[in-house]
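task queued by scheduler; priority normal; single chain, no ligands, no partner chains; default sampling; output format set to structure tokens
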Amino acid sequence: MIKRYLMAGFLLLCLFPWSALAQDQKLSTILDGIRKRYGLVPGLTLTYEREVITKSMAMLGPQVKPEVASGMIHYKSPHFLKFQQETPSKEILVTDGNVLWWYIQAKNQAHRYSSHQLSQEVKLLGDIFQGLRGVEQSFVILQKGEDDKGALILEVTPSPSWGDIDHIDLTITPGSYHIQKVEIYNLLGGLTRFKLGDSIKEERFKDDFFKFTPPSGARVIEE
């Protein structure tokens, strides 16, 4: 679960200059459009919906409906990220770049992860949100074409390979360069899909917004 959220955090915003990675002029145009839509803001908030589809669910077809989680994503440069899940249950995933907390309200339970445990994830997240610094050594980006509604699809593959992630597809609205979906495919045939709201609110967050203190009586689990 943590890995799904973090990988989405790395790629679902994909907000900054990708043009140095693109040899193809059309791909360069797309990536520059993403930068112009999302880049250079001090912070942002947007809505999301998340679906997790296992390989067995995919084989059973559309009659099996995945559970949908929804909430808000908040980001502040260079490495502050916060997911506030509202449905089906309230959860918070937040990092200030040093410590990551995952709080499950129904259980009053907080998992704490150190920066040492998450060094690869946190570094990559910071690279992406600071203009993809050094990310040309981490991903191969290809334009796959369009979906049945004319949206552009980019395939992003970690290079070298990273854990159980096979590749990530980004679905992008042509012209406005809104990132509609981030689909994370794993090596076992499963899929985690994030659908992003098209309304983005620019923010100037207070210093303590990305800090977390477990509520009174919460069980704290050191991971």
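post-processing summary
- Residues 2-222 form a domain with the outer membrane lipoprotein receptor (LolB), chain A fold (CATH 2.50.20.10).
- The chain has a mean pLDDT of 76.
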